[in-house]
Write a structure and sequence with these properties.
The protein has 353 residues and is of the alpha+beta class. The chain has ten helices and 20 strands. It folds into two domains: 3-231, Rossmann fold (3-Layer(aba) Sandwich); 237-349, RNA polymerase II/Efflux pump adaptor protein, barrel-sandwich hybrid domain (OB fold (Dihydrolipoamide Acetyltransferase, E2P), Beta Barrel), CATH 2.40.50. The protein is 25% helix and 34% strand. Helix 5 packs across helix 6 (137-149). It binds adenosine-5'-triphosphate (ATP). Adenosine-5'-triphosphate is lined by residues 13, 15, 17, 19, 37, 39-45, 193.
């Protein structure tokens, strides 16, 4: 396969911390893959092993089918951008961008020409002579990207590249970086704990938890069909109820919840029932015998384009997110019926507490 592949790659740090458990994954050539997961799940460790900055305890790393596991970082020459950008403050913008070329002994005129081309690519034409200290956060990030691209890497690795930027700039840079990556067609891996960032930029998302890849797939597939309750809660929002399977349906809060596709659970199995807030429907009278619970509105939060309605049903909390057309005049303290439609309902095995 062309692109980067991991075969059973694991990392146990001295002292016995298992950061990554035997991960097997393919990063196809020209695609952007996001490694997404909560703090401590092993994203950075995995990226550092790919970069050659950390040695795997087990497994193999392949580039276009060639085993590069034992290759040093400077031989791999992958482009890297870190959270801190790590720019050289005593060098100008152009000198930062052309740093790797200077190390390789490229003539000054060539370095200058290449720096200008790359600065143009990241929309910083004319900034070559500036000091790093005279740039905004977003501009620094672009310099870091241009510097990483200077050595024409076959693989581009970014570790939380937007985390130092404010929310608005972060969203702009996500789009810019994605467009640049698509234009260059460079195999790219981005580490992030921000699911919106992953969904904005990635062809494919790897959701990681406790050193393992829980689910891999295109953003919309992972969002619409989360493989586990963890993924359902991590990508987007989800309501969860504890239930038990009887007669092919899940029983919870005194009601019956039946998914569109019967879940293969034995009678008596404890399950987690999940439903996205935007799929929950509210009504003042029950519309169906199943998949519906009586609930009290505990809070109404109008957040511009949508309205978030917080509910309590037999002690369980849940949220419905309604478009303005469906909002009607639901008010705090009102008793309503919350319906979890069968096609939006997912059942997952419930771990013993
Ligand atoms: P974050 O989003 O907080 O950066 P992460 O998903 O990138 O987290 P890692 O930094 O890869 O996670 O860490 C994974 C696990 O390995 C954590 O439990 C961490 O404490 C541990 N770890 C990381 N680096 C080392 C190290 N050098 N020595 C020992 N343990 C480490």
């Amino acid at each position: 396969m062309r692109g980067l592949s991991l075969r059973g790659v694991a990392k146990v740090y001295p002292g016995g911390v298992t950061a990554v458990e035997g991960i097997t994954l393919d990063f196809p050539e020209g695609e952007l893959t996001a490694l997404l997961g909560p703090s401590g799940c092993g994203k950075t460790t995995l990226l550092r092993m790919i970069a050659g900055l950390e040695t795997p305890s087990a497994g193999r790393i392949l580039l276009d089918g060639r085993d590069i596991t034992a290759e040093a970082a400077h031989v791999r020459r992958f482009g890297m951008v870190f959270q801190s950008f790590a720019l050289f403050p005593h060098l100008s913008v152009a000198e930062n961008v052309a740093y790797s070329l200077a190390i390789a002994g490229a003539p000054k005129a060539e370095r200058r020409a290449k720096a200008e081309r790359l600065l143009d690519l990241v929309q910083l034409s004319g900034y070559g002579d500036r000091r790093i200290g005279a740039l905004s956060g977003g501009q620094r990030q672009r310099v870091a990207i241009a510097r990483a691209l200077a050595q024409e890497p076959s693989v581009f690795l970014l570790d939380e590249p937007m985390s130092a930027l404010d929310a608005k700039l972060r969203e702009e840079m996500q789009v810019e970086l994605r467009l640049l990556q698509q234009r260059l067609g460079i195999t790219t891996i981005v580490v992030t704990h921000d699911q919106r960032e992953a969904m904005t930029m990635a062809d494919s998302i790897v959701v990681m938890s406790q050193g393992a890849a829980e689910q891999v797939g295109p953003p919309q597939t992972v969002y619409a069909h989360p493989a586990t309750a963890f993924v359902a809660g991590f990508i987007g929002k989800a309501n969860f109820l504890n239930g038990e399977v009887r007669d092919g349906a899940a029983h919870a809060l005194g009601g019956v919840f039946r998914p569109a596709t019967p879940a293969p659970f034995r009678c008596g199995s404890p399950v987690t029932i999940a439903c996205r807030p935007e799929a929950v429907r509210l009504s003042r009278a029950p519309r169906a015998e199943t998949n519906s619970v009586r609930a009290e509105i505990s809070f109404v939060r109008d957040i511009g384009p949508t309205c978030e309605i917080h509910l309590v049903a037999a002690g369980a909390r849940m949220t419905a997110e309604l478009g303005h057309a469906d909002r009607e005049s639901f008010a705090m303290g009102e008793q309503v019926w919350a319906e979890w439609p069968p096609e939006a309902l997912r059942l997952y095995p419930r771990e013993a507490a």
